[in-house]
Amino acid sequence: MRKLINAPADVVADALRGLAAAHPSLRVDPEGRTVVRADAPRPGKVALVSGGGSGHEPLHAGFVGYGMLDAAAPGEVFTSPVPDQILAATLAVHGDAGVLHVVKNYTGDVLNFRVAAELAEDEEVEVAAAVVNDDVAVEDAVHTAGRRGTGGAVFVEKIAGALAEEGARLAQVADVAREVNERTRSFGVALSSCTVPAVGEPTFRLGEDEIELGIGIHGERGRERVRMMPAAEIVDVALTAIDADVPLRGAEVLVLVNGMGGTPLMEQYIAYAAAAEWLERHGATVARSLVGPFVTSLEMAGCMISVCRLTPELTRLWDAPVETPALRWGR
Amino acid sequence: MRKLINAPADVVADALRGLAAAHPSLRVDPEGRTVVRADAPRPGKVALVSGGGSGHEPLHAGFVGYGMLDAAAPGEVFTSPVPDQILAATLAVHGDAGVLHVVKNYTGDVLNFRVAAELAEDEEVEVAAAVVNDDVAVEDAVHTAGRRGTGGAVFVEKIAGALAEEGARLAQVADVAREVNERTRSFGVALSSCTVPAVGEPTFRLGEDEIELGIGIHGERGRERVRMMPAAEIVDVALTAIDADVPLRGAEVLVLVNGMGGTPLMEQYIAYAAAAEWLERHGATVARSLVGPFVTSLEMAGCMISVCRLTPELTRLWDAPVETPALRWGR
Question: For the DhaK domain, which residue ranges apply (chains A, B) (predicted)?
Answer without folding.
Answer: 7-329
